[in-house]
Amino acid sequence: MSERLVLLPGWSYPAAVLQPLADALHGDALRVELAELPALENPQQWLDELEARLPADCWLGGWSLGGMLAAELAARRGAACRGLVTLASNACFVQRDDWPAAMPAAQFADFRDGVAAAPAAALKRFDLLAVRDADEPRALARQLAARGDSSAALLAGLDCLAQLDLRAALREWAGPHLHLLGGRDALVPREVARALGELAPNARIELLDDASHALPLSHAAQTAAAILAFIKETSR
């Protein structure tokens, strides 16, 4: 039986950035579709828009913010979602008192101010963080450079990142879920792997020690192999 996986990109990126991963995944046993993030100015409407637009009875997945949105949507859909895959995603992107394995709130606020004041410079800074400590950071940064979102949509996406708290969703999600994390990630610390394991002991959590935040690009083949193996194992 062929499975269907819908993938959402990370904050500020077009869905096409995940095409190398989609190409590595696509085959007789799995159909892969790339979906854009909402271009809405109200972050409260993002999940409603995705719920209306994305197909039913499929696996949901995504990178970073895309993975967080996929996880929340999977929890909404319950048994109507086949499974969940997140890539370099956190349960809370911004630190909370009871979730320290995340970006400090002051650092996030400073970055959001930078996006509001000078989006081009802030986006370049974000790209450099996404590829920091990768084996070929300049080549990866070039792959991430193309964007088309308005400043308002970018800020709404950041507000989504700040507001999303997936801990209840991941605790309660009864379907199969795989979380792939990068050991060199400058945006989602490697300690998240342990924290997610404690939060959702039934989840499969894998840490790619030599991967940065851009692991779907830099480690497309390795990421695809992990996803395909997991879907095959849990879809029997």
Descriptive report:
With 236 residues, this protein is of the alpha/beta class. The protein has eleven helices and six strands. It has helices at residues 19-25, 46-53, 65-77, 105-117, 119-131, 137-143, 151-163, 167-172, 192-199, 215-218, 220-234; strands spanning 3-8, 30-34, 59-63, 83-87, 177-182, 204-208. Helix 4 (105-117) packs across helix 5 (119-131) and helix 5 (119-131) crosses helix 6.
Layout of helices and strands, plus pairs?
Layout: E1 3-8, H1 19-25, E2 30-34, H2 46-53, E3 59-63, H3 65-77, E4 83-87, H4 105-117, H5 119-131, H6 137-143, H7 151-163, H8 167-172, E5 177-182, H9 192-199, E6 204-208, H10 215-218, H11 220-234
Parallel strand pairs: 1-2, 1-3, 3-4, 4-5, 5-6
Low-confidence stretches: none
Largest sheet: 6 strands, parallel
Mean pLDDT: 93
First and last CA, distance: 9 Å
Looking at CATH, which topology would you report?
A: Rossmann fold
How many individual β-strands? 6
Short structural description:
The chain has helices at about 20-25, 45-55, 65-75, 105-115, 120-130, 135-145, 150-165, 165-170, 190-200, 215-220, 220-235; strands spanning about 5-10, 30-35, 60-65, 85, 175-180, 205-210. The protein has about 240 residues and is of the alpha/beta class.
